[in-house]
Amino acid sequence: MIPLIQRAFDFQERIAIKDSSDSYSYQHLLDASEGVAMQLLQGKVDLDQARVSFLVPAGFSYAAIQWGIWRAGGIAVPLCVKHPLSSIEYMIRDSEASVVIYSKEFEALLQPLLETSELHFIKAEQFSYKKGTLPNISTDRSAMILYTSGTTGNPKGVVTTHANIEFQIRSLVTSWKWQQDDHILNVLPLHHLHGILNILSCALYSGACCEFLPKFSAEGVFDAFRRDEINVFMAVPTIYFKLIAHWNEATPETKERISKSLKRFRLMVSGSAALPVSVLEEWEGISGHTLLERYGMTEIGMAISNPYNGERRPGHIGQPLDGVSVRLCDENNQVVANGASGEIQIKGPNVFKTYWNRPEATASSFTKDGWFRSGDIAVFNDGSYKILGRNSVDIIKSGGYKISALEIEEVLRTHPQIKDCGVVGIPDLEWGEVIGASIILEKDSLDANEIRSWLKGKLSDYKTPRKYIFQDDLPRNAMGKVTKKVLIDLF
Ligand code: MLC
Ligand code: AMP
């Protein structure tokens, strides 16, 4: 049995999930996921790692569907509720999903696929609480595919096994002292690791309660906090930035009330992008908490974390989690001297199995001796790791989303009036980086607004460049490649 699901039998009466519609117990989750599994199986004994993609809002039905896919022996492929159809279709096709589960609010978006496709579509609202015999799932089987951008144009599917997921959960539950009585607020998207694993799965593994907000807003978060039930919060730095900005605008009474609620929290974590020290310090002033910053990646779960007890060093990501091996290497995969910077490389049971259908990309992301190459550059500084940057300027992190500059460039170049372009991440306190596009036009007759509206439906909002410069040529190196570091300075 899948360990995460097995544990739910110990917590049957406890509240597992709270969403905008209701509160649901662990028993409820077990029953609903069994119903999903039975319907997916349709008389078969086991889905045998067939991919099942699902497009539903964050909440109880998301968890029931994820567990249902797992209990039927399938691989869960969660889709992004904010993606345009082209990205959704790409992930369905690339993962070779045979079944797509969707809830009614996405019916209109999916219509072109529903009409033409050979895929099997199931409406989430149709699931019933059917009981039956479910397959026994060994933990070495693949469990999930999450899409992540890289230095190649198209996002790659990261395949993790049940054993990877269990290790990743257990290491956080132990290190951050998750308890049954914890109650966490989840405002993150559920097609990425942070919201799925660090929040939802860790809460459910612990018998705790995971509460969802239908959509992130600073006001909504503070309203939820003021009920004095939530005691754990995890988010990307942009969210803390937005909460601080909202708090700064509040009346003195509201500020005092919010700060009082925050002070009784057990734990507050930041990750998925570098936490600016100014944000850490301002949040400390408001909440009385030093944010626990940690470092992770879709491919490896969490690898490095500041301690639960002990010094949380601003601007640093801490020490390797138990059972995770970390080293810093130069371009030749030689371990760097103490105090020198190098690429973070990782080994351990947390590391993913493969990129879906991409043996070459998988092979090139590991060293010959089996270390995963993160692409992040760090230094080990007085007992703690510090991230310095990435080894590719083509990877942008904005709002905690990993974005490929090349993917955006490819789309921009399909515009009939764009001759060439270079996309870069420009440092920004709120978003980490904002996307900038440097454009060479065929004719001088296009402005930023026209490009932005043309991009609608072609790229997700968080991938849309915010800043534009129009120019006659792009700075290139001797090899004829665009020198992006120079471009960043131009903005
Ligand atoms: C949106 N906007 C942006 C933007 N994204 N502006 C600049 N840069 C961006 N990247 C603009 C919109 O156009 C809109 O503008 C306004 O911001 C609000 O848009 P929204 O879509 O409603 O944004 P919001 O809901 O406020 O989203 C912010 C956010 C979101 C921080 C909640 O970006 C988010 O959920 N990020 C988390 C991503 C995540 O989970 N990453 C983890 C990956 S896993 P206007 O003008 O229309 O108002 C991983 C591993 C690990 O990294 O270590 O965890
Ligand atoms: P993703 O591919 O979306 O899982 O993003 C993983 C990337 O997020 C890592 O490779 C890092 O570049 C970045 N990241 C995660 N946590 C941190 C952190 N605490 N500080 C800096 N970068 C981080």
Structure report:
The strands form six sheets. The chain has a nine-stranded mixed beta sheet with strand order 2-1-10-9-11-12-13-14-15. Helix 14 (448-455) links the parallel strand 24 and strand 25 (467-470). 32% of the residues lie in helices and 26% in strands. Among the domains are: 200-390, 3-Layer(aba) Sandwich (Rossmann fold); 395-489, GMP Synthetase, Chain A, domain 3 (2-Layer Sandwich). The model has no long low-confidence stretch (mean pLDDT 96). The protein has 15 helices and 25 strands. The chain is α/β, with parallel strands linked by helices and 491 residues long. The site of malonyl-coenzyme A (MLC) has 24 residues, from helix 7, helix 9 and strand 13.
Q: CATH superfamily assignment of the domain at 200-390?
A: ANL, N-terminal domain
Give the overall shape.
globular
Give the biggest sheet: 9 strands, mixed
The name CATH uses for the topology of the domain at 200-390 is Rossmann fold
- The rounded distance between the terminal residues' Cα atoms is 53 Å
Report the CATH architecture of the domain at 200-390: 3-Layer(aba) Sandwich
Low-confidence stretches: none
Strand content: 25-35%
Mean pLDDT: 96
Number of DSSP helical runs: 15
Integer-rounded radius of gyration: 23 Å
Helix content: 25-40%
Backbone structural class:
alpha/beta
Strands ordered across the widest β-sheet: 2-1-10-9-11-12-13-14-15
Bound molecules: malonyl-coenzyme A, adenosine monophosphate
Number of strands: 25
